Amino acid sequence: MPNPVSTSAMTASPCPHRQGVSCGDCRMKALCLPLALELDQVERLDRIVQRGRPFQRDEYIYRAGTEFRSVYAVRSGTIKTFSVNDQGVEQVTGFYLPGEIFGMDGIAHTNHISSAVALETSSICEIPFNRLEELSLALPNLQRHFFQLMSREIINDQRLVALIGKNSAEERLATLLLSISTRNAQRNLSEVRFRLPMSRADIGNYLGLTVETVSRIFGRFQKQRLLKVDKKEIEILDLDSLQELANI
Fold first, then answer.
1. Which of 81, 128, 220, 236 has a Cα-to-Cα distance from 242 of 20 to 30 A?
2. What are the residue ranges of helices labelled H in 28-72?
């Protein structure tokens, strides 16, 4: 919960969607895999990374059941992952923001068990997993960092289960907003002003709430002067009170 949450929140130059950006030049390198690497090691990683055209809104990066071949890093935009149960009911499993890695659900399987779709125009770095494994054996720092990313994914899954199972609706929404706020701050972007790339329906699905409940809580937070909400534009007016509500 991949946020500048929107490409409009990124600084103007260079274009975050352009294909020619290398790992060494990428503004997300401090949050992504190159974090653990020296300059010459980053160049070795860069040689295996594949960068295609930007994905448009609602375009799939991969679908559940497709063969697992790669993990992916978000360079710009936002990605939603979700699964569909036997009854055809969709469950949102995560939102991935610039600098974050997704697609690791397929590591323990031969196929992806979830689908990934762009919520807005998004640029993705595809990292072939067999090449990443080979490089990790030669670069222990890379292997260690990738294991940390996998561990973080497990922790996030556990937190989502706990969030849905125990917390009140207000706590769930406050926690999501604070997660986005924190991830914004990691990118040196505003932690109190951002745009939500996901719909109210996606938020409700992710948090185990109805759309009506999500809208009602946003209205309540506004009345309590915790937030200012203008459609998808969010301004946190009282960060301390929001953190207290979320028990953070």
1. 81
2. 39-46
User: Residue 34's closest CA among 18, 19, 22?
Assistant: 22
CB 51 within 8 Å of CB 22: no
pLDDT in tens, the chain (248 residues): 443 333 333 333 444 545 556 665 665 555 566 556 666 677 777 787 888 889 999 999 999 999 999 999 898 999 999 999 888 899 999 999 988 889 988 888 889 999 999 999 999 999 898 888 888 888 887 777 777 777 777 777 677 677 777 689 999 999 999 999 988 898 888 999 999 999 999 999 999 999 999 999 999 999 999 999 999 999 999 999 999 998 86
Show which of 137, 164, 191 is a domain's final residue.
Answer: 164
- Domain-located, residue 2: no
189 and 208 co-located in one domain: yes
Instruction: Give the SS3 label for residue 60.
Output: strand
Parent domain of 47: 7-164
Annotate 114-140 with DSSP letters as a single string: SEEEESSSBEEEEEEHHHHHHHHHH-H
* Reported pTM: 0.80
**Across the chain, which distance is largest between two alpha carbons, in Å?**
56
Contact between 154 and 100 under an 8 Å Cβ cutoff? The reply is: no
Contacts of 143 (CB under 8 A, 6+ apart): 136, 137
**Hey, what are 206's tokens?**
């992710």
